Amino acid sequence: MPSSLPLFDSAPLPVATRGPRSTPERWLPTRPLPAPTLWLCLHLPQLPLEVRTRGLPASRACVLVEGEGTRRRVLMANTRAATLGIRAGMPVGAAHALGEVVELERSVEAEQAALTRLAHWAMQFSPLVSLVAPDGVLLEVRGSLRLFQGVEGLLTRLRQGLKQLGYRAQYAVAPTPLAATALARVSARAVVEDMHELPRHLAGLPLAALRLAPAEEEALASVGVRTVGECRRLARADLARRLSPALLDHFDKLHGLAPDPRAALPVPNRFESRLELPWEVSHAQALVTAGERLLHELQGFLRGHNAVTRLLRWRLRDRSGHWQSFELRLTQPGREQAHMLLLLRETLMRMSLAAPVTAMELLVDDLVQGRPGEGADLFGQRPAAQGEAYAAFIDRLRARCGDEALRGVALEAAHRPEAAWRWRQGEGLTLAQRVGARSLSAAGRQARPLWLVREPLTLPTHEGIPHFEGPLTLAPERERIEAGWWEGPAPARDYFVARTPRGGRLWVYKELEGEQRWRLHGVFE
């Protein structure tokens, strides 16, 4: 519609003297409206720049540029660049004259991918999360308020989480999704929980916050209408006839007079996130900040899915596009960001980069439904003041020394003591295996010691009695073992629990064939 077309049939009255024509039609009921839903909008005005810079500490002045040749101008500047006097709209050459600046190109694809990952992270606060392209995320939070002790508790958690992710966001809470979105674009912390109070908060809102079509904004501006409150004083019939019925529908949704359903974002079955670095990194330790951001995303993703994981796959991309990969395995499935970050730090400390890194990626597809295990420590549940849990200690030891430096012991289904166990490389015993070991011990194997000698030691005998630091006293019970015939001659032995003169308990056996010697095979204490 041309902007010169009058809004009404007759010439509009001067706005300075009479303002927009009023209407007897009411836009809102006189009594309070029910508010079954409550919407929270996160608006990220610096998203295009933060997507490119949040992977590393803000130690350099960075600007996002647009245009070509001599028309290249600054689109956004980070805090460090702003302290140099660099502002949006400034020519790139003028920005370089003020100091050393890192130029970054905008990536709309990366922005939308980051916005989607942020929505997945936000699912820990609400099951209904929707995108407001290109720079917003909507959450329906009415059902979450009790869990987070009200709106303020929820907002506190959100602020902390966004800071850890490296985003600066404006937010607003309102009974309708459109109202929350518009308020978040112009107000940093607007909270409206009562539907009856909504018109008062929206009255002074500039129409630019609604992001109407340019023709509609120009037509309204031609009669002096620049705020939502002024638009409400216009006649509905004239608005629908001269502009569009869709505009009235938009305002009805804004004020809660018409339904505005939002589609929930699909829930992915795997986590995959990548951070592009603003400059090349030559030392692995400098990747901790990027890894920390990705782990915060992962923790929110796992909480939203009520899941835990055992395996984190990391990839580092160099300038030539080649990838360097490594994995972090958890002894016990979990989702605690602090523990996973500690393992990442330990791993990066002993890593050498094949080439300078330009991007870092985290992939997690091994998801286990449920909360982190409790009481799964080898030594039982312990307060934090008494030290870290067994599984966390094993993870940290493996990350610091490498998988090859750590071995565990597992049981084997074999009667011969020397064949009833084996080394496990890379993983510690799980809770199920430890429970199985205890149940096996309770089933009649309690007479066997945990400490076996490398090679059975031949004991001297005197009058048929074996000696070790003196004559041994044998318990009357014995355990006969005849097994292993498939590997050669089967050993035939009678095992006894023997006590030394000093009170020590040994595990000895007598050969039933051949020389029938006495041998020491294990020690109880």
Can you describe what's shown?
The protein has about 525 residues and is of the alpha+beta class. It has five domains: about 45-110, MutS, DNA mismatch repair protein, domain I; about 110-255, no CATH class; about 270-370, DNA polymerase, Y-family, little finger domain (Dna Ligase, domain 1, 2-Layer Sandwich), CATH 3.30.1490; about 410-445, no CATH class; about 450-525, no CATH class. The model is unreliable at about 1-25, about 30, about 375-385 and about 430-445 (pLDDT under 50). Helix 12 runs antiparallel to helix 13. The protein contains 15 helices and 23 strands. Strands 16, 19, 20, 21, 22 and 23 form a six-stranded antiparallel β-sheet that branches.
Termini separation (Å)?
94 Å
pLDDT average, as an integer?
84
Helix content: 25-40%
Number of helices: 15
β-strand number: 23
Oligomer category: single chain
- In angstroms, what is the radius of gyration? 35 Å
Largest sheet: 6 strands, antiparallel
Q: Number of domains in the coordinates?
A: 5
The secondary structure category is alpha+beta
Overall form: elongated
Low-confidence runs of at least 5 consecutive residues: 1-26, 28-32, 374-387, 428-445
Q: How large a portion of the residues is in β-strands, by DSSP E?
A: 25-35%
Furnish the topology, listing elements before pairings:
Layout: E1 39-43, H1 47-53, E2 61-66, E3 73-77, H2 79-83, H3 92-98, E4 101-105, H4 108-122, E5 129-132, E6 136-140, H5 150-165, E7 170-174, H6 177-186, E8 189-191, H7 198-203, H8 214-221, H9 228-232, H10 236-242, H11 245-255, E9 271-281, H12 288-304, E10 307-318, E11 323-334, H13 337-349, E12 357-364, E13 367-369, H14 390-401, E14 407-411, E15 421-425, H15 431-445, E16 451-458, E17 461-462, E18 465-466, E19 473-474, E20 479-482, E21 492-499, E22 505-511, E23 518-523
Parallel strand pairs: 2-4, 7-8
Antiparallel strand pairs: 1-6, 1-7, 2-3, 5-6, 9-12, 10-11, 10-12, 10-13, 14-15, 16-23, 17-18, 19-21, 20-21, 21-22, 22-23
